[in-house]
Amino acid sequence: MVIVMQRGAAEEQIQKVIDRLTGEGFDVHRSTGVERTVLGVVGGKIVDHRDYELLDGVKEVIRITQPYKLSSRTFKPEGTVVGIGDVRVGANKVVVMAGPCTVESREQIESSAAAVHKVGVKIMRGGAFKPRTSPHTFQGMGEEGLKLLHRAASQRGMYVVSEVMDHTQIPMFLEYADILQVGARNMQNFNLLKELGKIRKPVLLKRGMSATIEELLLAAEYIMTGGNHQVILCERGIRTFESATRNTLDLSAIPVVKKLSHLPIVVDPSHGTGRRDKVPPMARAAVAAGADGVLIEVHPDPDKALCDGAQSLLPEQFEGLMKELQLIASAVGRTL
Ligand code: PEP
Ligand code: MN
What we know:
Blueprint: E1 2-5, H1 11-23, E2 27-32, E3 37-42, H2 49-53, E4 58-62, E5 82-84, E6 87-89, E7 95-99, H3 106-118, E8 123-125, H4 143-154, E9 159-163, H5 170-176, E10 179-182, H6 190-197, E11 203-206, H7 213-225, E12 231-235, H8 253-260, E13 265-267, H9 269-273, H10 279-288, E14 293-297, H11 315-331
Parallel strand pairs: 7-8, 7-14, 8-9, 9-10, 10-11, 11-12, 12-13, 13-14
Antiparallel strand pairs: 1-3, 1-4, 2-3, 5-6
C-alpha cells in the first residue's frame, strides 16, 4: 500500500506511522517531496488499511495489491482449466450446462435429460435442495431428487451440477454430483466454503446477489485455501434499482474477472434476467464477452414447472439457442 501524509504533517507524526509499519514487519520506502511525504509500504501481511487512515497526519491510504492471492492472476498468470471427466471448463470450448431449475419427478427429469442431451449438452443442472425465498414454496426432492438427476444424466453420459446448501450434505453430493454448486445466497457461508476446500471435486461458485467481484474472489479464496483449486465462478446477476429484470446481469464481470483472476467464469442468464425471452440474448452476449460457459434453465413444460418456469426455456427454444451460440463462439475464436 501507499500512505500519503497530509501537507505539512509533522515529522513526529510521520515517524509514528513508520514505526507502526515496521513494527508490523513491513518495509517502508519514504519519499519526501516539497509538498508532502509519501510512504511506500511493502510486505506480505494483510492489514486493515483503515487502521492507518485514522493515524494523525495521514491523508489517504491507497491499496495496491489485491486481498486475494490464490485466485489472483498475479499469483498464477495462466488460466485455470477445470476438468470434469472429458469436459474442460476454461479451455477454448465454451461449455453449456443446462437442465431444469429443480428436479420434480422421474418423468420430468428424464424428459429434461433427453432434451438437453439431444443437442449436445455434457453437463446437466438440476436442484434437489432449493434455497427458496419463501418456506411455503417447493423446497426440492432432496436426496431422492439428486439420485434421479444422477441417473438421468449418467445414463446419457452427462455430468451433474447441483446445489449443495449445507456442509453436512457434502458426502451425499460427492456420490451423486460431479460439480458442487454454491448458490448466490451461500456465497459467504464461510463454513460451507471451508468444507468445500477439503474435497477434490469442482465447485461452481455463484456470485452473491449483493456481492462485489472482490468479495466473489475472496469467497473462492476460502475454497482454494483448503487445497481445492477447482473453482468455477458464476455471474448470475446482482440486485440493483432496476426492476425490469429479476436481477441485473453484470456481464462486465467477465472481462473484470478475466483480468483479476485465472479462474474460469460462466454466466447464468436464467437467474440473471428471470424472463425466458431475455435469456437467449444475454446468453449470446455472455459468450461474445468471453464467458467460459453458460448455465441455462430448460424445462420440458415450463408452464407446469414447480420453480422458475418463467425463466426456463422450452426444449425447442434451447435448441435454437445452441445453434446461435455456436455462431457467436466461432466469431470470437472459440468452439461450442
Ligand atoms: C440455481 O441455480 O438453482 C439457483 C438457485 O441460483 P442462484 O443461487 O443463483 O439464485
Ligand atoms: Mn432456478
